[in-house]
From TrEMBL:
Name of the protein: Hydroquinone dioxygenase large subunit
Residue ranges annotated for the Hydroquinone 1,2-dioxygenase large subunit N-terminal domain, each copy included: 29-169
Originating organism: Sphingomonas sp. TTNP3
Amino acids binding Fe(3+): H258, E264, H305
Entry's EC annotation: 1.13.11.-
Gene designation: hqdB
Length: 341
């Protein structure tokens, strides 16, 4: 289940959102298929993803494109805006999704060259999954850190559907509770990552009173994160009402610039992440934040952010999953920051 599925899915009734998508011809030289969704077309060659839309075109290096597409698919379009780069991305309306070019870029908007189309989420998700499957070659894992995978370049050479079809962790209550998402171990296919070899693996001892065995639990979160086989993929590990704890392990670059539609809290559990923070609408720089172990920061609802981490680090993302927040922020009844000094 993608994180956005924890939110209310809105019924748009007789919405005019598009559902028209199409698989186009296979290129005889490269072996890759092209795709169409509405007025957008997607084509790849040995090095680049090439996008076109009415009145415009754009090129993204294929490694950056696949890493961003992997997150957009795995996250179910996530909260708010997923910017693949400074031009292309998606906006989640939780049941429908807008795909855009230049929507959050001042130069495009000022020149009247921005373009966007709204789709049923299920229709766009289907074509995104097919692009990801067709364009990911054997040996390349867009979920992995660059030093942990092969290369995405070249002509068509097999696929890696096993890697791109991983199911994200979405605990119903908490990891480790009976019937819920299990704790990671060597036995269930999650060895300790190469950069976390020094992390203790001992688990806490819980002695629950009879009758409360399914209600009282604990697990070693650091040990759990040390066994993550992906990067930049916050998974829901505990749920209390709308409060979601979503820890993750981070290495290299967050593949997208995430444009928030709500405040988002970050607790740096280990090592260091440098965050570039930009204005959500224009993309203009607003801040650079260096978060070290123990630091806590809040990303406001009117920004986009992208992180950089050399040493694989542990990050706890705290989300308020209430479906009411985006509209409350849009109409001014909820603030874009948690506190005003």
């Amino acid at each position: 289940m993608a994180m956005s599925e924890a939110l209310e899915i809105i019924d748009f009734g007789d919405s005019k959102a598009r559902t028209d998508t199409e698989h186009l011809a296979i290129n005889n030289e490269t072996g890759y298929r092209s795709f169409r969704a509405g007025g957008f077309t997607f084509t790849r060659d040995e090095y680049f993803a090439r996008l076109t839309w009415p009145g415009g075109s754009h090129i993204i290096p294929i490694d950056a494109f696949l890493r961003a597409m992997m997150r957009d698919v795995a996250w179910g379009f996530f909260y708010g805006v997923v910017n693949f780069d400074h031009v292309f991305g998606t906006i989640n309306h939780y049941g429908e999704v807008t795909m855009f070019a230049g929507r959050f870029n001042d130069a495009y908007r000022n020149a009247g060259r921005d373009h966007e189309e709204r789709f049923k989420s299920s229709a766009l998700m289907a074509v995104f999954k097919d692009i990801l499957s067709d364009w990911t070659v054997e040996g390349y894992d867009p979920f992995a850190a660059p030093m942990e995978t092969g290369l995405p370049w070249g002509i068509k050479n097999g696929n890696n559907d096993e890697a791109i079809s991983r199911q994200r962790v979405t605990a119903r209550r908490m990891v480790g509770l009976p019937g819920d998402t299990p704790v990671r171990t060597d036995a269930n296919g999650f060895p300790v990552n190469r950069q976390f070899a020094d992390v203790p693996q001992e688990q806490p001892v819980v002695e629950a009173e009879p009758g409360f065995e399914a209600e009282v639990s604990a697990y070693n979160l650091f040990g759990y994160l040390s066994r993550s086989d992906v990067t930049w993929n916050p998974s829901v590990c505990s749920v209390v009402g709308d409060s979601l704890f979503c820890p993750t392990s981070e290495e290299f670059i967050l593949p997208v610039e995430h444009g928030n539609d709500r405040c988002e809290w970050f607790l740096q559990l280990s090592d260091e992440i440098v965050w570039d923070v930009k204005d959500k609408e224009s993309g203009k720089p607003r801040a650079r934040v260096t978060a070290r172990a123990g630091d806590i920061c809040c990303m406001p609802a009117d920004i986009r952010h992208q992180g950089y981490s050399t040493k694989r680090s542990m990050l706890l993302v705290w989300e308020n999953g209430s479906p009411k927040i985006p509209q409350m922020i849009a109409d001014g009844t909820a603030p874009v920051v948690p506190v005003t000094f």
